[in-house]
Amino acid sequence: xxxxxxxxxxxxxxxxxxxxxxxxxxxxxxxxxxxxxxxxxxxxxxxxxxxxxxxxxxxxxxxxxxxxxxxxxxxxxxxxxxxxxxxxxxxxxxxxxxxxxxxxxxxxxxxxxxxxxxxxxxxxxxxxxxxxxxxxxxxxxxxxxxxxxxxxxxxxxxxxxxxxxxxxxxxxxxxxxxxxxxxxxxxxxxxxxxxxxxxxxxxxxxxxxxxxxxxxxxxxxxxxxxxxxxxxxxxxxxxxxxxxxxxxxxxxxxxxxxxxxxxxxxxxxxxxxxxxxxxxxxxxxxxxxxxxxxxxxxxxxxxxxxxxxxxxxxxxxxxxxxxxxxxxxxxxxxxxxxxxxxxxxxxxxxxxxxxxxxxxxxxxxxxxxxxxxxxxxxxxxxxxxxxxxxxxxxxxxxxxxxxxxxxxxxxxxxxxxxxxxxxxxxxxxxxxxxxxxxxxxxxxxxxxxxxxxxxxxxx
Length: 459
Ligand code: SF4
Fold this sequence. Notes:
The protein is an alpha+beta fold. It has 16 helices and 23 strands. It has helices at about 15-25, 55, 60-65, 110-120, 130-145, 150-160, 200-205, 250-255, 270-280, 300-310, 330-340, 365-375, 410, 415-420, 430-435, 445-450; strands at about 5-10, 35-40, 45-50, 70-75, 90-95, 100-110, 160-170, 175-180, 185-190, 195-200, 210-215, 220-225, 230, 250, 260-265, 265, 290, 315-320, 340-345, 355-360, 380-385, 425-430, 445. It has two domains: about 5-245, 4-Layer Sandwich (Glutamine Phosphoribosylpyrophosphate, subunit 1, domain 1); about 270-440, Rossmann fold (3-Layer(aba) Sandwich). The protein is about 30% helix and about 25% strand. The mean pLDDT is about 95. Strand 12 and strand 13 (about 230) form a beta hairpin. It binds iron/sulfur cluster (SF4). Iron/sulfur cluster binds near residues 183, 251, 395, 397 and 447. The site of iron/sulfur cluster has 11 residues, from helix 8 and helix 16.
């Protein structure tokens, strides 16, 4: 998944400090590692670290990194192992002197084709990360073929397929761009004449940015000390019939994004409440309480409870210092995390008929443990309601979903999943109802549910 941020200060502020704050607000998008590159107008200064943003960037370090512009990244690994070498931003040094840096969010589906083509031209890679691929592509065409950086990015948009929202930094210029399908989110806002970009609007809120808007799919933004340019006239040329079509990731609205973010032209919490209300319309009984799996299902649970007129209760308490189980890198860590992460309120569940709401079921191991936990705490009945359709397909666009064979919906019927989890009943949101929960249903990718991949994976 990952989160990115970029900041260009025209007031002489500390861009690295602003980027740190924006990354801190997006820690939910990646907890494996993080990094910031700042520029004083000429020289780039990099710091990367495994772990959380706040620990990685103490004030003293941020003061040393003070500069007019900066980019940053929080990593959730999709391609490449969890080591510092695969952590972004990537810094690319050239023999002729200039240094460049890039941070990106997403997954390139024709990585091998693009990387092999660059290797033939003499480009050397130090990691398997998409960010490095994008950066080396731009630097190659700028430095070796003499293109303007913005023209190299236009070429990149034609050649590189898949999902990427990215920030690219030179000594004196910040670029921001987003793939033409707009898979991953990207927002821009202004802070007293400074400019900030980030994956999610919650990161711009923390900076008190105003005039927020989405960076358009296929748009390239160029920021310098005295100028700001938006390039989008060429966008139509990127589509075979000239007709623009977006494929925003629907899972961002269901699960990944923070509920206080504004994404794909709507508030995330609003979509989640609608999903909850849809789920409530499937049931003709009234439970004693609706309990969400915190935190991602909180607003889905609220939507359900308010539509039914029954109490919404935080019966499961989450330890916020464990992290999100879905984005932990391996099964052992995930299993341990679930046990350490949730604890039921004592005496709360005794004898109650509970609707337990979660956003999705991927492998099924987490929800199974939770149903057992709630039953073990004395619930008389547990009715499981899931705010998305069954997940049947892997994601190629920046989310590390397991292989198809690991997805429980491919191995068991709905009734078998109910039985496996130990729930008294199980209902998923159906895909037509999910479409009704967003303003522009035709502009989304639903491939992990329906298998219709908008950009085919190239092998
Ligand atoms: S396949 Fe699923 S997770 Fe991936 S972009 Fe599409 S909707 Fe999002």
